[in-house]
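notes to self, project folder thing:

trying the whole complex as one job this time. last attempt i did each chain seperately and stitching them together was a nightmare. two parts in total, labels are on each line so i dont mix them up again. if this works i'll redo the older ones the same way
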Amino acid sequence: MRGSVNRPPTPEAEDGRQDQHLSLQEIINIKLVESGEKERLKELLRERLIECGWRDEMKELCRSFVRKKGKNNVTVEDLINVITPKGRASVPDSVKAELLQHIRSFLGSAAL
Amino acid sequence: MSMSSVKSPYTVPPPCNHLASYKLKNGLAGYTSLQEYLRIAPNGKPAISKPDSKAPGCSSCNGSHQRLYLCLSCNWISCIDHTLSHTRSSLGHEIAVDIERAELYCGTCRDQVYDPDFDRAVMCKYIREMMPRGRNGFEGISIISERSSKRRRLVPGLDSDFSVSKQLICSGDQRAKSCYPLGLRGLNNLGNTCFMNSVLQVLLNAPPLRNYFLNNKHNQDACRKASADRFCLLCDIDVIFSAVFSGDRSPFSPAQFLYSWWQHAANLASYEQQDAHEFFISLLDGIHEKEGKAKDLNKDGRDCQCIAHRVFSGLLRSDVTCMACGFTSTTYDPCMDISLHMDTNSSLSADSPNKANKSSGNNMGSSSSTLIGCLDLFTRPEKLGSDQKLHCQNCQEKQHSLKQLSIRRLPLVLCLHIKRFEHSLVRKASRKIDWYLQFPFSLDMGPYLSSSIVRKRFGNRIFPFEGDESEISSEFEIFAVVTHSGMLESGHYITFVRLRNMWYKCDDSWVTEVDEKTVRASQCYMVFYVQKMLYYKANEELSCIPISSQRDAFLPVVGCC
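result (full assembly):
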């Protein structure tokens, strides 16, 4: 990235990252991203959530929230905060199971 | 930008103070330098990524489960919490970019912000990236926003005033006033011909066709002289129009028309029940063939001007996107109608509240038991199977692809055909899908236009897309529904037509007035919509038909009133 006079000094966190003992979850995440698998899984998830109507329900939740608050009084952050818990709770089990299955088989094939 | 008279699909929101001061200070430099890191994600959407493939994470907490933002002033990547604290601690570092979506964010307003210059920078990169290898569906897009708006005028003759020139048309005596509007007459069943009668009733009440025939645009004498061919479907339809609008209410037998159609569709010439949709398409084809020959149209790709095409022809756009590199190839195909599948997928779990079906199809409990749901399904991106990998010009090899349909140009009259008859070659069996399908009386086709569909693909952008400037309204009003009842082999077609907001049931020889509820509850097979403007114009015209006392036109007969 281009250098900038405004750039604050490099904090310790960046250096510290390499030395830190990474949790299993973090390692898996890095592997998923680097191989491109995470993006494929995201696309699969997106497709499933559209098919079962989950996205439409979230849209409707957002719309009713905006109607209630008035469209000039709502930020993206508000919307995210409102629908995240409901969204997470309403993901169908079949979708969760399918994604877990994909991750499991990915881990099986990837050398950890 | 668009002319003031045209409804623009978006308005440019004014920038917040922070965005405005960022622009004052940096101009477009920040956006242009960002272009280097813009890439196209496999789903076709623009995103920002670092040159190395390291997993992007917040520079402060390494978190990657929230949205990540890139500060435009110092290129710091942070999660939302650290973006907000970064904004507070560093003066002037308010504006950031959502790296997954390539959309602007203001840390002080704590909200998404919009800048046409930014979106132009994103889209330019995209176009530049894809253009050398092909048009990528961006024909006609100019990066400079000067563009001539192509006015598509309504075809003359179809929207002309209802100047009643035919002397046969008269309104008769007092009794007629309390009776049905002109243009309603039963059609006798000539032997399993309800499929034909139902479609004829639609054509008799399609405003552009009514204007065309009643204004004598197809002159039978001229036609007979011009062509040696004894059979002309348009002449026969003209005969039917004259008969139906004559004021005589006794059921009419369209025998001459049936015979003519048998000449055209020899394989379907029998007294067996036929499929109404198949008949409809075959009829339009017959009209096109005859008129195409007569007018000696040039074949250099110009739009056909036969009446069938002028009324029913639209243009479909098909985009196939390579899932590896995002490259999209676009093709256009004309269509005379749209055939819609009903979705077999189940909706969400039972404990989600099933709200009553209002106008929106965005309803969880019954995602596809509405016509809107079917249209959503029609324009949804479809992942092509592994056995359908297509060759990508960019990657130079076969890749998994995503296909998406949209409507480039809407017709004057829109025929939506519901695929209720399933023919399985594997099982060598056919079946009928009886599910109820809710359909609206007013339909806005805006979300299914190519401009809307393509626009959505790139995220929330302030950017003019091809087709945005179209002056054709996308609002339609229903005027006819062909319904099918019974089983596959032995069913019955009837048509409901809407005149001046009253509904009439046309069941072969019998025409009766019915309630709106009856129509809504029916099992629709083909739903016909006309552009709203034409519908309301036609309604006005219906109310001012001149009265002539040439003959006692109203006879109390079976089948009417």
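what i see at first glance: The two ends of chain B are 54 Å apart (CA to CA).
need to look closer tmrw
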